[in-house]
Amino acid sequence: MEAALYDPTAGFFARGRGPADRGDFVTSPETGSLFGALVARALDREWVRLERPDRFTVVEAGAGDGRLAREILRAGPECGAALELVLVERSPAARAAQAGRLPAGAPVRSLEDLPVEPVIGVILANELLDNLVFGIAEATGNGWAEVRVGLEADRVVEVLDDLAPSDRALLPSVEDVATGARLPIVRGAVEWIARAGNLLAAGSLLLVDYAAPARTLATRGGWLRTYSGHRRGNDPYSTPGVHDITTDVPLEPVRAAIAAAGLDLVGESTQAEWLTGLGIAELVEAGRRIWEAGAARGDLEAIAGRSRAVEASVLTDPGGLGGFMVIEARRRRSRGDG
Ligand SMILES: C[S@@+](CC[C@H](N)C(=O)[O-])C[C@H]1O[C@@H](n2cnc3c(N)ncnc32)[C@H](O)[C@@H]1O
Q1: Residue with the larger pLDDT of the pair 280 and 93
Q2: 14 located within any domain
Q3: H or E stretch including 40?
Q4: 20 to 30 A Cα–Cα from 335, which one of 7, 112, 205, 246?
Q5: Residue 178 and residue 41: Cα distance in Å, rounded?
Q6: 36 Cβ below 6 A of ligand 1
Q7: Percent of the chain with pLDDT strictly greater than 70
């Protein structure tokens, strides 16, 4: 999976696919400006909670082509004068695309990996965890096994192997699922949360992804998905580097990683609920009024105002982006507080 997505020359993201070319899947920031305007409200809320620090750092991990950062800035948040945005993006193609999206002189730094200095602010990741490298576990009569790939007469085949003892903590008890059930072993996501949590001196971690309890994923299946050209693929082993490979994220190992990083889990809601709490209806109504005032002129601002209603319905659709989970965790006031 690491090579299929991130190999420097042949990997899906390194080849400039995904959000950098907008051809393979649609994420919330790509639906328009509404999502960024609401994330800007969430950032303001956190800045106020932290008592308006002079320097407020927002690390956006898996920032893609910088679209969300652009919309956050465009929304003109109250924390703007204190705001420093750090866009962390592994794909060089996506990083290159950021420059063209962001206004010249904007308080933005672009990095390939998480910064090293402690962060006072928010570490934010929209649809990152589902793209971090995961393994596949299968429930057998003898406990969990790991599904690995092997070659048989030039064909990729699956081979069951022992599960490393350290990976057991990332899975539920094997007795809780049917024999043959499979689950993702989300090692990459858990490692990333540990690193991000460790950076956060004060403030919040905000994760948005498709996530569900592990037992739900084991029963329902279908959690491993590939995408190419806006279409779902089937076989993750075919044509590596040509499609995106993602997983629905099991909630329990994410919660455990948050707790292990010394953060408090303060919210788990669907994206629809979260955006409602941030006032999506009010922004849609304001857009309608802008449209009505400018409709006769048909100017761009009026059209953008009207399109907010469509964006809102996509962002809150319970069967689509609205069903994503927003997971919020917070560093206690000071690391000394216990
Ligand atoms: C599904 S895309 C989401 C992009 C963007 N957040 C959005 O919502 O449109 C995931 C992005 O995470 C990037 N990525 C994967 N692993 C990463 C890592 N360890 N650090 C930073 N970015 C990473 C990928 O290159 C890709 O651009």
Answers
A1: 280
A2: yes
A3: helix 34-49
A4: 112
A5: 43
A6: no
A7: 92
